[in-house]
Amino acid sequence: MSDERRKNLAGDRSDLVQTIISMLHSGHLRPDKRIGEASLSSELGLPRGRVRSALEELKQFGVLVRVPRSGTFLRSISLDSFCESIDIRAALEALAIRLFCAKADSSQLSALADLAEEVDELNGEILAGNRSVYPVLMKKDLMFHATIAENSGNQRLFDTLKKERLIEYTFCLLETEIKVPQPSSDLPVPTHAEIAKALMKRDAKLSEELVRQHILRTKTLRLLRYTGEMI
């Protein structure tokens, strides 16, 4: 890890939390193995206190669980839990984007459009097989959705979406364990750029529909990947 990256992690707990999640997703930290503060602190080159704080935040979000006399592990998340979380997220983000569409100024909309292009480009790299960009994609994808929620004017809404988003990414860990061929779909997932374009037009109804489709159709594709069935 570069000195610059360590500096960023040392100063920003949210970056550290996202880094730990990306390590779980990549298989660097295994779901079936204990996540040790000392070893993680040594690997990241950060004080144990900062690592402990990040792990505690992930436990509060329901991503990790503390097992007495055993240690900290990745929480097991069921299909039902995944579906419930995504359905809640779809409803809340639809509300958030409607509020954001009314409140956002032109500079916020322009910055979001630029971010949307970056996210879609990174998604393209992932689909092409370049999984090394996943940590950057996750950070920017989270930033895109968090920007909308954070600037919706409803803090409780933002806090709830932050938790559900982390649960969704944790569930994606199953991709490394379950070998199901990637299915094709006749339900295209709206891109981040399409959502940003609707916002630029101040079309609240279209923005709301696109973000709902973006979330729920992604859920459908992931369920097909995990189970081979549409649930």
Structural class: mainly alpha
* Low confidence ranges: 1-11, 174-183
CATH class of the largest domain: Mainly Alpha
The CATH superfamily of the largest domain is: GntR ligand-binding domain-like
Rg (CA only): 18 Å
Annotated CATH architecture of the largest domain:
Up-down Bundle
In angstroms, what separates the terminal alpha carbons?
41 Å
Strand order of the largest sheet: 1-2
Task: Please tell me what the overall shape is.
Answer: globular
| Strand proportion | under 5%
- According to CATH, the fold-level topology of the largest domain is Four Helix Bundle (Hemerythrin (Met), subunit A)
- What's the main sheet like? 2 strands, antiparallel
Instruction: Report the count of strand segments.
Output: 2
Overall pLDDT: 82
Number of helices: 10
Describe the protein's architecture and organization.
It is a single chain. By secondary structure, this protein is mainly alpha-helical. It has two domains: 3-74, Arc Repressor Mutant, subunit A, CATH 1.10.10.10; 79-227, GntR ligand-binding domain-like (Four Helix Bundle (Hemerythrin (Met), subunit A), Up-down Bundle). It has ten helices and two strands; from the N terminus they run H-H-H-H-E-E-H-H-H-H-H-H. The chain has a two-stranded antiparallel ribbon with strand order 1-2. Helix 6 (106-127) packs antiparallel against helix 7. The protein is globular and about 55 Å long. It starts with a helix and ends with a helix. The model is unreliable at 1-11 and 174-183 (pLDDT under 50).
